[in-house]
Amino acid sequence: MNKLLTILLLTFGSTLGARTVDFYLASRMDGVHPLYDGHFTNIWGYGFLDPETLSSRISLPAPTLRVRLGDTVNLHFFNPSEEGHTIHLHGLDVDQANDGVPHTSFYVLNGQWATYSFVANHTGNYLYHCHVTTTLHLTMGMYGMLIVDSEKPDELFPGGPKFDREYPLLFSDMERAWNDDYTTGGSFIEFEADHFLVNGLSRQMVYDSAYTHIQTPGNERVLLRLMNIAYSGIRIDLPPGIIGEVHTSDGRELPEPFQTGSLVVYPGERYSMIIDFPRRYVGKIRVTHFDLNGLEELGESIIPINEPSPHPFDESNAIVYPNPSNGVLHFNRLWDIREVELMSSGGKILLQAQPGPDGMDVRQIPPGIYLCRIHYKDGSVQLVKMVQVP
Amino acid sequence: MYAHASDTLAIRHIDLKVGSFQYPVTVIQGLHAKDSTNAPILISDEKEISYVILNSTDRDQVLFIEDWNWEREIKAGQYATIHFPSPEKGTWVRMNSKDEGESYAGLSTVVGCPLKSDGWFYWNLKSYERGTLERIRRQESFSIPKWPSAFTFNNRGFPQTRKDTLAVVKGHVGDTLHIVVLNSSSSHHSLHFHGYHVRILKSTCRSMEGWLKDTFPLFPGEIKVLELVPHQPGMYPVHDHNLVSVTMDGNYPGGMITMLMIMP
């Protein structure tokens, strides 16, 4: 697992700002993804790849790729799955060979490697997704965010507005029947989404993730990176009295920023909105998905702002509980966790699992002092001491 | 192709072959046109222009331009000389049938005056459902269907769009190319450009003038005028990101996809 931390290799050039960034990604068609009702559905997707062992684990959405303005970026892509896939770099205006459209670029077939390369010429919010049978491969989960940061980490683009905190939010949807069994989903003409996702999470799961539950103490400018890869359009309604300022769309500065309390984002579009919170605020952002054939409302997601949560995750709260353990460990930020390793004090891995809502069963571990190594979806790792009592 | 003042136009009922099926649609095009495209109608910014328009259908047709509060009736089987006003250069308006059924059946195009450019192109986005079209042709009652099955640029679905000289954008790096896009369908669409951002010169529904975008919405009845100045050569698709619309009769790829062919 340590190797996964080395997947993102940053090779610095001779001067700051002239970097070459290498990512290693794999595509797979054997993933599962939790839904709010406890059901696990099938996904296809991308995940970071260990280039030595070729091990990988996919997620929905795929890992967010972050680079800096001016970086030369190489996506080294291995496809061990049974069908051909590609990576389309949506909005990055790459050359034809790197565009990821099978008929004008190339397929990456089973067992093949490919490298997609580009220079990140514009800051902003972008997507990457498979462009093979897009209607199917997207709904199965083959998409993720790609963000090009400005040189200064607190500005939206060079010389642009500053922010204190940010939330990249990727909106998508799925018709569960397609994911449960894509061979019996029916005609795409009749596709009708029934799950509405924010960074892959739906309903109450959104409350339990540090990536989708906005936490701000106030006196802050919060940047929302709003991206839609759904089949449906979305309308984002800020809480009453809250106004956001929209500065960019599709990786380009707007001629004039505009202020709004409601923003409509069509499939494939991306926006950057900054909200000024002069004081601590509690409320909800409502995201309504609508059908593009008749504007019928299909469903909604709620993005909480400092809302009470059944699984609070601010840093003052326990990360692993109960501790000492009574045999079942629970984790806050549950939906942000990719994997948990339970290790002896000598570093030997005793258990390895992705915990679910029912926790992680550790009854077979004898009493003693252990370390929990928690791997989050953003690549960060946290070590927590855990005591197992008789 | 587009219509010049010297052309005689005809309103026709035709059987459009896209995908696996035939769709009974209504078009307005040059009298001698051999394709199934609605012609964009060019008018002058300097003088009023008249077109002779023949209505070869079995019903009276009322052509309607909402932006100008303008309408003209042509009786079934008759022709009329239609005068168009002289607009500012760069103006484009939608002309469609005032009858909801004939408009759903495809009688919808643009009237306007292009800006100076190195090339201009026309995309008329339309989706169809066959049963609804058949009821309209029989002059029966109908409602707008929830699930259209055919999705077209200029009454062609991909890959047939590649044969359409107005749908395939051809140019060179550094050219200034203009694309007039009309959403004639009752659905919302979200066009995505590969390879390039385009500047939106005109947007009749949601104000986006001056924005540089790679993906943007098209509301029912909306016209957007786009400016593309290619910075690199290449062959790239442009397609709807309303992903149902890149199918034809449920099959992918099809429907609302066209190509950009940019030479060095």
Widest β-sheet, arrangement of strands of chain B: 11-10-13-18-15-16
> What is the makeup of the main sheet of chain A?
6 strands, mixed
The percent range for strand residues of chain A is over 45%
For the sheet with most strands of chain B, the description reads: 6 strands, mixed
Number of strands of chain A: 26
Gross morphology of chain B: globular
Query: Count the helices of chain A. How many?
Result: 3
- Which chain pair shows the most residues in contact? A-B, 38 and 41 residues
Radius of gyration of chain A: 21 Å
Question: Structural class of the secondary elements of chain A?
Answer: mainly beta
Helix tally of chain B?
2
The helix/strand class of chain B is mainly beta
Tell me what you see in this structure.
The complex is a heterodimer of chains A (390) and B (264). Chain A has helices at 2-5, 134-139, 176-180, and strands spanning 9-11, 20-34, 40-48, 62-68, 72-79, 88-90, 112-119, 124-129, 143-149, 165-174, 195-198, 220-228, 233-237, 244-249, 252-260, 262-265, 270-277, 283-290, 297-305, 320-321, 328-331, 337-344, 349-353, 360-361, 368-376, 381-388. By secondary structure, chain A is mainly β. In chain A, the strands form six sheets. In chain A, strands 11-10-12-17-14-15 form a six-stranded mixed sheet. In chain A, strands 1, 2, 3, 5 and 7 form a five-stranded mixed sheet that branches. In chain A, strands 4-9-8-6 form a four-stranded mixed sheet. Chain A is globular and about 65 Å long. The two termini of chain A are 30 Å apart. Chain B is built from two helices and 20 strands. A six-stranded mixed sheet of chain B has the order 11-10-13-18-15-16. In chain B, strand 5 (61-65) and strand 6 (70-74) form a beta hairpin. Chain A binds chain B through residues 88, 90-91, 93-96, 99, 101, 104, 133-136, 138, 187-191, 231, 233, 249-252, 254-255, 264, 266-270, 292-295, and chain B through 144, 146-149, 186-190, 192, 194-197, 206, 210-217, 231-237, 241-244, 246-247, 249-250, 252-253.
